[in-house]
Amino acid sequence: MKKTNPFAWLLCSIAAFFILSCSQAPVQEEKPDQKPNIVFIYLDDLGYGDVSAYQAGTLQTPNMDRLANGGVRFTNGYASSATCTPSRYAILTGTYPWRNQNAKILPGTAPLLIDTTQLTLPKLLKEVGYHTAVVGKWHLGLGLGNVDWNQEISPGPNQVGFDYSHIMAATQDRVPTVYIENGNVVNLDPNDPIQVDYDQNFEGEPTALTNPELLTMKWHHGHNNSIVNGIPRIGFMKGGHSAKWSDVDMADHFLAKAQAYVREKGNSDKPFFLFYALQQPHVPRTPHPRFAGKSGMGPRGDVILEADWVIGEFLKTLEDEGLLENTLIFLSSDNGPVLNDGYFDDAVEKLGDHTPAGPFRGGKYSLFEAGTRVPFVAYWKGKIQPGVSTALVTQIDLLSSLAALVGSDKKTLDSQNLMNAFLGNSQQGRDAFVLEAYTKTALRSGDWVMIPPYPGPAIEKNVNIEMGNSPEYQLYNLREDPGQQNNLAESNPDKLQEMISLFENIRGDNSKIEQVELK
Ligand code: NG6
Ligand code: CA
Asked: Does the CB atom of residue 44 touch ligand 1 within 6 A?
């Protein structure tokens, strides 16, 4: 090999440096946007114990575990509410849902809950160059009231920050049972217009009450209005036959849309934000035949296995597209678990030893922990070191945290920048959090939770869930007593008073809704 003279090499290097520095061409080509893609994988009614990585149940979810064990698995992660609409409102607006009187479980005909002038996470991401999309369950209202489903439906997701939307309006158990893409009902035949009403039936249309012989799934409570695909729903619907979704294909349908989106946007110059809102395991639980009977726990277990498979397929797509290293993924649920949520589907009977709520008391709708303490995972291949975090984090915090990550100065009053905790660089979460359940609120602060006295049943009979209602104050130390068995309100009056003051301080005057306008 020819020996290089070190002096000549140095001269060449200096010359090269000057030539490069003096040339008119830009020194460096402009790099494509280095901001990561962001994906929320958001399940509906999935409990803390439903993800096997949490080691609190018996069902196996290997694909969710891949995220949970390969990222930061939060053990003190909260949905903002024990029901869907308020949690979704909070995740997208970074605002406590109890600040908005209308943030309650919405009928399929409800107007859009988010003000179109309000700051939202997709809006702020758009401002810094993201392409944004929502695929799956919406349940935040559409239009301005009295929606004509046969015209373009607006305002909706596309008016609050999403460039692309492919959604169901409300829930799988509510009409209209159609997909809506960018404001238009998919596959609608103009000669068979859709009508929807939540108060009265359309003449001559079968319902679960008038035509029980048409049912393939039986209702337990509620859910006795229009029948679609043999399943009785909440609300009445007429027409739109060609647009009606197939329940057993819904998971595959949303997966295909999510995959198509990341394939299309993943390799463009813009980063993307995808809010991928799966419908499982909310009722009606309709696993594709590939998954029926696979869990041994009835349809609830089967649809969780289906959701897990879907997540695995979605991750494979990110991997195949070379996107996994540049995509920050959050996995969570909008509220805690419920077994019987209105249909006879063996969820109770076939549960076996599985514990959807994990070690926690209550469930969906409840002020007790299982209402809002949910699986919560942040995963970023190569960027986030695997680990478990006890930091107190909530879905409200994603807005300010992600704003900080992408270099936006936007934030809201309620949303805290916990990006260091989400990235696993710190175990420091927020100090306090006001959780919501069915318009009632409670305070988590440090290891403690305080539930004020509320009227109402201790157990909601239909769903068989302890609601957290009591004539007395409740005070629990969650570190020592995660199952909320020992009410320390009487024995620890100082702590109780401290919690009440902090609670009142945070809640303040509820009627003053702090809204941050877009500049
Ligand atoms: C309740 C429904 C329940 C479910 C829930 C919304 C009845 C009796 N119960 O009103 O089945 O749809 O609303 O769930 O109708 S959530 O996850 O979207 O909040
Ligand atoms: Ca839900």
From this structure: yes
Query: From the CB of 468, is ligand 1 less than 6 Å away?
Result: no
Mean pLDDT of the chain: 93
The CATH number of 37-185+246-425 is which of 3.40.50.150, 3.30.70.790, 3.20.20.150, 3.40.720.10?
3.40.720.10
Ligand 1 contact, 436 CB (< 6 A)? no
CATH topology match: 37-185+246-425 vs 435-507: no
* pLDDT value of residue 3: 45
Segment 409-465, tens digit of pLDDT: 999 999 999 999 999 999 999 999 999 999 899 999 999 999 999 999 999 999 999
Which pLDDT tens digit goes with each residue over 182-208?
A: 999 999 999 999 999 999 999 999 999
Q: Please name the residue that has the structure tokens 């905790």.
A: 421
Cβ-contact 396, 415 below 8 angstroms: yes
For the CA of 171, the closest atom of ligand 1 is: 18
Which ligand sits nearest to residue 103's alpha carbon?
1
Query: Measured between alpha carbons, how far is 95 from 511 in angstroms, rounded to an integer?
Result: 14
For the chain, the structural domain boundaries read 37-185+246-425, 195-238, 435-507
From residue 351, give the alpha-carbon distance in Å to each of 338, 339, 340, 462: 12, 9, 11, 17
